[in-house]
Amino acid sequence: MNSFFSLITKNCRKFKIYPGPDPKQAIMGSLVFCIHHKQGCTWSDELRKLKAHLNVCKHDATQCPNKCGAQIPRIMMTDHLQYTCTMRRTKCEFCQSEFSGAGLEEHAGTCGQEPIYCEAKCGQRVLRGRMTLHKSKDCTKRLRRCLHCNREFSADTLALHVNQCPRAPTVCPQRCDVGPIARADLEAHLRDECKALAIACSFKEAGCRFKGPRHLLEAHLEANAAAHLSLMVALSARQGQQIQMLKSAVSKLSINFTGTLLWKITDWSAKMAEAKGKDGLELVSPPFYTSQYGYKLQASMFLNGNGPGENTHVSVYIKVLPGEYDALLKWPFSHSITFTLFEQGAQSGQGGVAESFVPDPTWENFQRPSNEPDQLGFGFPRFISHDLLYKRPFIKDDTVFLRVKVDPSKIVAV
Ligand SMILES: [Zn+2]
Ligand SMILES: [Zn+2]
Ligand SMILES: [Zn+2]
Ligand SMILES: [Zn+2]
Ligand SMILES: [Zn+2]
Ligand SMILES: [Zn+2]
Ligand SMILES: [Zn+2]
């Protein structure tokens, strides 16, 4: 230690010591960046100049001049003063009133001059301060009551409703003296009350042409009872004719044109009993045609027989009836006729009794028939004996089937 001290002392004595650079001066002279370098300030200079730089550095925070208490980087100050400073002076853009920043925030959303959309969704923008008035007076969505029916409608649909409102008053289209009538009651008025509406007489269908106001109709009906009655009689006669025409049209539609009649005779035992009690009781078949434009024929049957078969046999006959096409047909009728009485049931098969004949050209029965209803038939008085009839299964379910077949070939077929 001593030796070191002495060395310095020695040195001090021996050498003139020049003052070295002042360390403080040296530090102050070192090159530095601005403390806001990272925020983007590019300033760089001696440390001693930093303080002066910070007084102007865009990135350094300073007190807001409005004394709102905020420390704001200079670069943001204009924005702060304009927009965010709570102490800034500003104007509401709608009413132009002056506010501090905080006051404006409170004012926003309540300004009476701000246009806002109508809450009733009518699509209009209205100043907030006029909204109540709008909703009660102009808004197309405000509710209004129909004066006639008292129901509520939005203002824009009320007119349409009134045009159809069932309670809206209308005048009678017949201009009768009744006052305004609710639209819904008009139909009943015209139907039941209207004095001006001309109504047709209730005998119109029968041909009465009277048409007049309701109050005259009753007098008309009273005065014309006899005339109405004769109109009705004539109407009923016309309808009777129509029914006849329809009947004949229907029977034409159902007539058989095949040349073969299968005649089903039901209630056999009752009919047989009746035939036994009544002489000459003849059962006739539905008429049929030999072809579409052919001869009209009808079969008949005496259940208790007639002529040589009386009381012992069933007799069958065919007769020619006056037909639609007789004028065009060849006379005398000369087709062969076969009668077959069928046995019924599976065991006996389709057996039966059959008889045929070919008309002789000289027989009167087959000349063209006149319109006399009682033409004679031709056939077999002893077609089948009652004995055989009940021996074999010809009758089943009290029903008998007789087939009458017409064959233009003249060959007698069984
Ligand atoms: Zn800076
Ligand atoms: Zn401020
Ligand atoms: Zn305002
Ligand atoms: Zn509105
Ligand atoms: Zn209404
Ligand atoms: Zn009327
Ligand atoms: Zn009449």
From TrEMBL:
Keywords: Cytoplasm, Metal-binding, Receptor, Repeat, Zinc, Zinc-finger. Transmembrane segments: none annotated. Pfam families: TRAF-mep_MATH (PF21355), zf-TRAF (PF02176). Residues 52-105, 107-158, 161-218 form the TRAF-type domain. SMART domains: MATH. It is found in: Cytoplasm. InterPro entries: MATH/TRAF_dom, TNF_rcpt-assoc_TRAF_met, TRAF-like, TRAF1-6_MATH_dom, Znf_RING/FYVE/PHD, Znf_TRAF. Residues 258-406 form the MATH domain. A zinc finger (TRAF-type) spans 52-105, 107-158, 161-218. This is TNF receptor-associated factor 4 isoform X2. It comes from Musca domestica. The gene is LOC101887819.
